[in-house]
Amino acid sequence: MSEKPVHPDDADDALVRQARLHSTRLQHQADDGQSSVTRHLAQIGVLGLTIVVPMLLGLFAGHWLDHACGTGLMFTGALLILGLILGSWSAWNWIKRA
């Protein structure tokens, strides 16, 4: 059984790709210097809006459906929770990419 030799330039190796990505990010951070406080606050604001906007859309759509169908708060609650789930998922993906 011959094993494939491990080579640092092997692009198929997930560990090597992750190490290169991490190294690139560290180099960009070193080139840019310290991130400002306002940049971090802006990122927090974007994350908040990423979660809140789908929730509000679900709230308004659910309210409209409940009013049109006369179902109380059934659609409002369901679409509000759905908006929370979608917004949280979207924020999580945004954080993973950053």
TrEMBL record:
Pfam families tied to this protein: ATPase_gene1
Keyword vocabulary terms for this entry: Membrane, Transmembrane, Transmembrane helix
Cited InterPro entries: ATPase_gene1, ATPase_put
Signal peptide limits: none
Transmembrane region(s): 44-65, 71-95
UniProt name for this protein: ATP synthase subunit
Organism lineage string: Bacteria, Pseudomonadati, Pseudomonadota, Gammaproteobacteria, Lysobacterales
